[in-house]
Amino acid sequence: MAFALIFFASSSIRHALLQSSAWDLAIFDQAVYLISQGQSPISSLIGFHILGDHAAFLLYPLALLYKIYPDVHWLLALQALALAFGALPTWYLSLEAGLKKTQAIAMVAVYLLYPLVFNLNLCDFHPEVIALPGILAAVLAADMNMYTAQVFLSMLQF
User: Fold this and answer.
1) What is the rounded CA–CA span in Å between residue 7 and residue 77?
2) Which residue range(s) make up the domain with 48?
3) Which helix (H) or strand (E) holds 150?
């Protein structure tokens, strides 16, 4: 979970230094806040309901966190946690492919240090990123012939 902290710290520092964009992060922050207040999440930036833009049903359970404390750092933390959690199915996929433990560790390191993963974390908040560990877990389930789990994990992506 050290990488979750690294991902969260880097995105939080970027936000604190006013380098986060006012577009995507603001749209999702406003939408989750409005949902947490029991209002319709019609963004003042895009002018329509948030589900008409991304169909991100995940924003509704996220609003429970905003009821505790409405802060954009919840979004950044969840995204960082999801990206770091993608290392777990990567580990199991590596072992399932017949790699030695040292090679599986190397594959996890490649995943966590991959610039695209780090840049996904830095690029504000996108609910689609939360699906990455689920997609990797669905691939693992398919590889292990666990088709029921694969269907369930695939359906969670929507």
Assistant:
1) 8
2) 2-156
3) helix 147-156
**Are the C-beta atoms of 35 and 41 separated by less than 8 Å?**
yes
* Residue 139: half-sphere exposure toward Cβ, Cα within 13 Å: 15
- For residues 45 and 23, is the Cβ–Cβ distance under 8 A? yes
User: What is residue 49's three-state secondary structure?
Assistant: strand
C-alpha–C-alpha distance, residues 78 and 64, integer Å: 13
pLDDT tens per residue across span 97-147: 999 999 999 999 999 999 999 999 998 899 989 989 988 988 888 888 776
Question: Is 123 strand, coil or helix?
Answer: coil
pTM of the predicted protein model = 0.88
C-alpha distance from residue 116 to each of 12, 16, 96, 123 (Å)? 18, 22, 24, 10
Q: What is the pLDDT of residues 87-98, one digit of tens each?
A: 999 999 999 999
Alpha carbon dihedral 89, 90, 96, 102, in 10-degree steps, equals -130
Contacts 24+ apart (CB under 8 A), 21-27: 21/124, 23/124, 24/123, 24/124, 24/125, 24/126, 25/72, 25/75, 25/124, 25/125, 27/53
* Overall number of domains in the chain: 1
**Both tokens assigned to 113:** 């240090």
